[in-house]
Amino acid sequence: MEPLWLSMELALTAAALLLLIGLPVAYWLAFSTWRFKFLLEAVVALPLVLPPTVLGFYALVAMGPQGPLGKVWRAIFGHGLAFTFAGLVLASVLYSFPFAVQPLMSSFEGVDRRLLNASAVLGGSPGRTFHSVILPLSIPGIVTAVVLCFAHTLGEFGVVLMVGGNLPGVTRTASIAIYDQVQSLEYGPANRMALLLLLISFAVLSLVYAVNRQARRSLWTPWAAK
Amino acid sequence: MGRKITAPLTVRVRKARRGTNRQPFFLDVALEIPAGVTILFGPSGAGKSTLLDCIAGLVRPDSGEICAGGEKLFDSAAEINVPVHQRRIGYVFQSLALFPHLTVEENIAYGIHRLPPPERNRRIEEILAAFRIEELRRRRPAEISGGEAQRVELARSLVTEPRVLLLDEPLTGLDEELKDRIIQDLRAWRTARHIPILYVTHSRAEARALGDHHIAMREGTTVSEAQAELARTKLKQ
After folding, report:
1. Does CATH number 3.40.50.300 belong to domain B1-88+163-237?
2. What is the pLDDT of residues A47-106, one digit of tens each?
């Protein structure tokens, strides 16, 4: 079960980091009026269309001994970044970035502009409006983003293989272990691991839909309905 | 007891924007609004809401000046544009905008959260009593009626003790009995606080009941004093 725990650890770390980075990026994308904003939107969405091997290849080159990330990492920590758990986390954050930003951005954009105006005329600074109005009304989007990032990282294969390889206890995640077991014709263990991943994925997606449904019900105001 | 003399709201703005039918629309207004209720008339598309948005800071005029309470809020020549949240202007929108995730009491407390708790609680209790909405304090907007929400919206704006109050058709869609009650609340409040109040309405009854002054707007500008006088006379009939 070690690969599964490693996958869980990787998914939780990546989801937490993605939330931290995704919130300000999504806020800027939702409310900025910069005319070339679409370029950044395209960059954020790139991992959705790129083959994981392409993303993994560039991540590996950047993290390698001659790559910019690898050099910086080595200067700070004294060792390389490729084929380490930290390297996996970084690659996972890149790979799942759109899964964090897009639900958050849609949620922020979905907050009624009248409420933002109301907050401002009541003396709410942009920071307070974000904290007291936008964030609480975006809880379904935040839950969706975190859960999707978690589930997406849990199931990733191509990027992990490119950047992390297959080092037991370090970079050998559940999806890599399944692949390995199938290659060795060990269908029994592969089946157990696959079934666990299937159940976890189903559970987290059910949670997303349940939270969204509940949130829609609790905030419905009949007199505000159009 | 002598009443404190309140500086008028002075507005001189120009703004070009795309209208509802995508036709260009020009707002070109120069007004001085004294303390008391000034009724702002005019057909739909005359620029009333745009004018209110400019005063509140939600829309930036192309040029001009806006002064309230002796402070310059906007001056295109001096490049002054006080952000919306620092203007201390109360604004009740045409459509309701209560925060759906907060209770009535939390909605009312939103604009006065920086006050010390005793002062904040005193103001909340006062306004809840004045608008007879004490029993709604723990309810969320989804659990109250449209008329109750309208009163909460007014109370939320008034509790901040703004130096100017903008009301954009705040009683639209309410039944007559409820309107009368809210008008009574507003009259009592107007008497207690001597500030400029700009009130947009199509209703003669509301204008008659509340209006101290009258301004008519058409196609983005104020019409002549004579026409405003005519409108006022018609209201009295």
Report:
1. yes
2. 999 998 899 999 999 998 888 998 999 889 888 888 889 999 999 999 999 999 999 999
Q: What is the ipTM of this complex?
A: 0.87
Residues B141, A222: C-beta atoms closer than 8 Å = no
Nearest of A86, A91, A102 to residue A29 by alpha carbon: A102
CB pairs < 8 Å spanning A and B:
78
Taken in order of first residue, the domains within chain A and their CATH numbers are 2-30+82-215 (1.10.3720.10)
CATH 3.40.50.300 residue ranges of chain B are 1-88+163-237
Q: Which two tokens stand for residue A56?
A: 């993994």
**For the whole model, what pTM was predicted?**
0.83
**B91 CA to chain A: closest CA distance, Å?**
7
User: Would you call B145 an interface residue with chain A, using a CB distance cutoff of 8 Å?
Assistant: yes
Mutation for A interface: B101, B106, B160, most A CBs within 10 A = B101
Q: Specify the amino acid at residue B133.
A: I
d(CA A177, CA B103): 51
Q: Is B178 on the interface with A (CB under 8 A)?
A: no
DSSP, res B64: E
